[in-house]
């Protein structure tokens, strides 16, 4: 199982209507659960930096994680950047 970090930046228009943002979040979540059953959600965090949202997921299939990112983008209110993460101790063992 691999860990992926999905960094999301929302468009400014996303925040104009809080109710709309909540509805989009629900729709995105439903679509991901339906279309990407091999992805396990580990956590979601709102951030105050360059990205608005950080999601941590696990999957054996990088293509399915790519599909998650495309679903997030498909609603037209966000851009994403996806990183593969490795536990620090495991990384040190590769050195």
Report what the structure shows.
It is a single chain. The protein is an alpha+beta fold and 95 residues long. The chain has a single domain, classed as Lrp/AsnC effector binding domain/regulation of amino acid metabolism (RAM) domain (Alpha-Beta Plaits, 2-Layer Sandwich). It contains three helices and four strands, in the order βαββαβα. It has helices at residues 18-35, 62-74, 88-94; strands at residues 2-10, 40-46, 53-59, 78-85. Strands 2-3-1-4 form a four-stranded antiparallel beta sheet, with helices on one face. Helix 1 packs antiparallel against helix 2. The radius of gyration is 14 Å and the shape is globular. The model has no long low-confidence stretch (mean pLDDT 93).
Largest β-sheet summary: 4 strands, antiparallel
Helix content: 40-55%
> Which geometry do the CA atoms define?
globular
CATH topology: Alpha-Beta Plaits
What is the domain total for the residues? 1
Architecture in CATH?
Answer: 2-Layer Sandwich
CATH superfamily heading: Lrp/AsnC effector binding domain/regulation of amino acid metabolism (RAM) domain
Q: Please tally the β strands and state the result.
A: 4
* Percentage of β-strand residues: 25-35%
Rg from alpha-carbon coordinates: 14 Å
The side-by-side strand order for the widest beta sheet comes to 2-3-1-4
State the CATH class: Alpha Beta
Distance between the termini: 21 Å
SSE class = alpha+beta
- Put simply, the count of helices is 3
Summarize this, please?
With about 100 residues, this protein is of the alpha+beta class. The protein has helices at about 20-35, 60-75, 90-95, and strands at about 1-10, 40-45, 55-60, 80-85. The radius of gyration is 14 Å and the shape is globular.
């Amino acid at each position: 199982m691999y860990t992926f970090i999905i960094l999301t930046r929302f468009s400014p228009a996303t925040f104009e209507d809080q109710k709309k943002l909540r509805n989009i979040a629900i729709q995105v979540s439903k679509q991901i659960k339906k279309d990407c059953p091999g992805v396990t959600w580990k956590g979601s965090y709102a951030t105050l930096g360059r990205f608005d949202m950080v999601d941590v997921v696990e999957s054996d299939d990088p293509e399915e994680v790519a599909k998650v990112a495309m679903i997030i983008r498909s609603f037209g209110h966000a851009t994403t950047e996806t990183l593969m993460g490795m536990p620090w101790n495991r990384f040190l063992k590769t050195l």
